Amino acid sequence: MVSPRANWKGFIKFGEVACPVALYTAASSSDRITFNTLNRTTGNRVQREFVDSESGRTVSREDQVKGYEIENGQYIILEPEEVAATVPSSDKTLSIEAFIPCSEVDDVYLDKPYYLAPDKMGADAYKLLRDGMKRAKVAAIAKTVLFRRLRTVLIRPHGKGLIATTLNFDYEVRSSAKALDDIPDMKIEGEMLELAKHIINTKAGEFDTRAFDDRYEKAVAELVKAKLEGRTLPKRKAAPKPKTSDLLEALRESAGVVAARPKPAPATRNRGAARGKTAAVAKGSKTTSAQQRRAG
């Protein structure tokens, strides 16, 4: 088994204690099916070229520079060495600045996770940090230079080790106002709330990553296999149309509750006969009442 390659190596420091550590990718899309762009006529791969937007001529790599647009079509040119000078210097140290309760972590700031493992020596200090954080139920906020930027990292106990997740910068996290402020204010209670609680209870489960199903990846794999074997390509199934119903009715159906409805009166074969029978009963009732009065 090939050992994973570390993305970063350095030290983690808390107080005056430091130990060597390494970061390893925890989530990657490298195993997904990928495609190359080909020339349909020759079957050869095509290459990307940068061309001048005005002249249409190809621009060589040495003539390509970065530019910041200040106005429409006007740019400030930044030379490679000028850009390189802005990269902060790194001492290869993850410096823990604070320990915070795990409940204070806002998931919207989480960016990319990495396994944080001890690098050969220094395992005792690593274990001390891990077990101390577990017992205190806290996470650590640390900073270091990662991939040319000063990054803030959230460190948490994870199984036998630690996991370090880079955090989004504040300017990268968009406000929820535009997305959520238009939700109307309405109070849900009574039968609706009870039915919702019932559905939630019946759907209770556990977090099981084995149940995650990448249907697109499976479909693409089946498509490639069918093309290789010369089989008929799989046809896409039509998605079922959603039923239109009011919220309460949908909740009742989801919870398996059948709403009580009045039973319709049994249909009669001959409405005229039914009306005649009703009239006869009424006439009979009047006759009986008259006979009772005379008898009295």
The CATH architecture term of the domain at 8-28 and 87-172 is: Beta Barrel
**Estimated helix fraction:** 25-40%
Find the CATH topology of the domain at 8-28 and 87-172. Ku70, Chain: A, Domain 2
**Number of H/I helices:** 7
* General form: extended
- Residue fraction in strands: 15-25%
Strand order of the largest sheet: 1-2-6-9-8-7-5
Summarize the biggest pleated sheet.
Answer: 7 strands, mixed, barrel
Count of extended strands = 9
What is the averaged pLDDT score?
A: 82
Biased composition (Polar residues): 285-296
Subunit structure: Homodimer. Interacts with LigD.
Domain Ku: 56-185
Family: Belongs to the prokaryotic Ku family.
Q: TL;DR?
A:
The protein contains 7 helices and 9 strands, in the order ββββαββαβββααααα. It has 296 residues and is an alpha+beta fold.
What characteristics describe this protein?
296 residues; Ku70, Chain: A, Domain 2; seven-stranded mixed barrel; two-stranded antiparallel ribbon; 7 helices; disordered C terminus; DNA damage; DNA_bd_Ku70/Ku80; Prok_Ku; DNA-binding
Please give a structural write-up.
The protein has 296 residues and is α+β, with helices and mostly antiparallel strands. It has helices spanning 80-85, 123-136, 177-180, 191-202, 215-229, 247-255, 271-295; strands spanning 8-14, 17-25, 66-71, 74-78, 93-101, 110-118, 138-146, 149-158, 161-167. The strands form two sheets. It has a seven-stranded mixed beta barrel with strand order 1-2-6-9-8-7-5. The chain has a two-stranded antiparallel sheet with strand order 3-4. The protein starts with 7 loop residues before the first strand and ends with a helix.
